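Support request from a user on the community tier.

User writes: "When I paste my structure tokens into the form, the page sometimes reloads and wipes my input. The last time it worked, I copied everything first. Here is what I submitted, just in case something in the input itself triggers the reload:"
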């Protein structure tokens, strides 16, 4: 039995990249919710059918070698969680039986050094089929972990409705509801009443005040002061909706697949969604490495990798046909690993230095910015930009146009980036490189990119809730 918190306890955790291990063979999901305890849209649900949040801050993966059987890992980079997110809920559910049958249901949080930060074992599960086991939440400029253990006898449906997910609405209704909610201010005391008699304003309890951060208390006081000042005039209209710039719809989302082997081979990965995916390749050996997609007649298409570098590693983009089978021809000497990943797994560009080697796929979601690359190899360095704002076809990438950078040899190169989301594809990089953003401006919220990106919210929610509907 884990020695840790009991239900209701909380403890500070480092604002860093943490690993959350959920044990007992249950299905695991994460909900990223606002201060109001609601998701902003369907993209804030992370589960086995959509294992990575668009921000890259929360990712779901099966347990690794050495983990206990039935362990699921949730990686949460707290420093990368968007400001609009107040809590990350860790959700457990079961398709058969109840959570009472899940012996040893527990959560353990590991720090960057691999040591245990905090742990919680659920000891009072009953007839529930879904539960918010724990949460990571903002407090006093940092983050805390709370042992929640709140179960739902009506399963994922009840849990989803409680957190702003409607399992019955269609995609258009979901988009309209999300936009409408973004324009609504939280309930407040009418300005005139607050000005005439501040005592009429609802008073918070001691426990509510203790659970608020100093910034929240100051914001509340400021809001009441403004309400008194604005009382004689008509209430101001609500602010216009500002879409989340990290919400982008390009490419399917699925559980990553891994294939290993040795020397030349033909690789087939079945059951993939139609559309663009990332293919990661790592070779332990020397000599030539080539990778080609095969069409339905087994003919080679344009090469994805064509390198003479020893120990090749990198990530490229391939397109999965409508029948869902991706076939690749690999020529390599030595052992190798191929991983097929969703574009949501693209590395995030930031003002921190990102170091890598070989071709790669990067994502920028902020406002206009410059990205500086330092290429340290002696071969080609070629990159393209894919502007994803307003691009609604998940089965294909937009036309990137001519190469944004096409150079040979070691050099420093700075590129201006349009407002995100933008996919940066380094199609050829024969050597090590690093990248860093500078002069990043705030995102305009879609004013200059043709309006907000529409999310296929209901489709993703229905995928998560399919067990509750069967």
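"...and here is what came back when it finally went through:"
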């Amino acid at each position: 039995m884990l020695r840790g918190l009991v239900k209701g306890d909380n403890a500070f955790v480092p604002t860093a990249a943490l690993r959350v291990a959920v044990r007992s063979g249950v299905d695991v999901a994460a909900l990223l919710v606002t201060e109001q305890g609601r998701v902003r849209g369907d993209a804030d649900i992370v589960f086995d059918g959509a294992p990575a949040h668009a921000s890259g801050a929360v990712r779901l993966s099966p347990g690794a070698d050495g983990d206990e059987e039935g362990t699921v890992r949730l990686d949460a980079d707290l420093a990368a969680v968007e400001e609009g997110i107040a809590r990350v809920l860790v959700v457990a559910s079961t398709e058969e039986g109840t959570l009472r049958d899940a012996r040893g249901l527990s959560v353990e949080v590991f720090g960057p050094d691999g040591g245990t930060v905090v742990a919680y074992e659920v000891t009072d599960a009953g007839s529930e089929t879904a539960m918010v086991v724990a949460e990571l939440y903002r407090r006093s400029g940092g983050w805390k972990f709370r042992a929640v253990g709140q179960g739902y006898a009506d399963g994922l449906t009840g849990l989803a409705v409680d957190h702003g997910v409607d399992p019955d609405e269609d995609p258009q209704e979901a988009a309209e509801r999300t936009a409408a909610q973004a324009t609504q201010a939280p309930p407040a005391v009418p300005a005139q009443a607050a000005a005439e008699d501040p005592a009429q304003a609802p008073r918070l309890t001691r426990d509510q005040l203790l659970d608020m951060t100093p910034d929240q208390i100051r914001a509340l006081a400021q809001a009441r002061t403004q309400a008194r000042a604005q009382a004689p005039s008509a209430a101001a209209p609500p602010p216009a909706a500002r879409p989340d710039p990290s919400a982008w719809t390009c490419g399917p989302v699925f559980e990553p697949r891994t294939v290993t082997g040795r020397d030349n081979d033909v690789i087939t990965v079945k059951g993939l969604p139609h559309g663009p995916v990332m293919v990661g390749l790592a070779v332990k050996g020397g000599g030539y490495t080539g990778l080609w997609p095969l069409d339905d007649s087994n003919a080679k298409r344009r090469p994805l990798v064509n390198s003479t570098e020893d120990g090749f590693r990198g990530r490229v983009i391939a397109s999965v046909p409508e029948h869902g089978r991706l076939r690749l021809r690999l020529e390599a000497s030595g052992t190798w690993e191929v991983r097929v990943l969703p574009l949501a797994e693209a590395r995030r560009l930031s003002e921190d230095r990102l170091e890598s080697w070989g071709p790669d796929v990067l994502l920028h979601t902020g406002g206009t910015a410059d990205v500086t690359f330092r290429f340290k190899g002696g071969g080609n360095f070629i990159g393209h930009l894919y502007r994803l704002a307003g691009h609604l076809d998940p089965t294909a990438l937009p036309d990137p146009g001519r190469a944004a950078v096409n150079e040979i040899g070691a050099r420093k190169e700075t590129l201006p980036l349009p407002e995100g989301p933008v996919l940066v594809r380094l199609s050829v990089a024969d050597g090590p490189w690093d990248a860093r953003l500078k002069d990043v401006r705030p995102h305009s919220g879609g004013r200059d990119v043709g309006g907000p990106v529409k999310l296929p919210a209901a489709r993703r929610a229905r995928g998560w809730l399919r067990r509750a509907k069967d």
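Agent notes: The reload is a front-end session timeout and is unrelated to the input. The first strand starts at residue 10 and ends at 13. The chain has seven helices and 28 strands. Escalated to web team.
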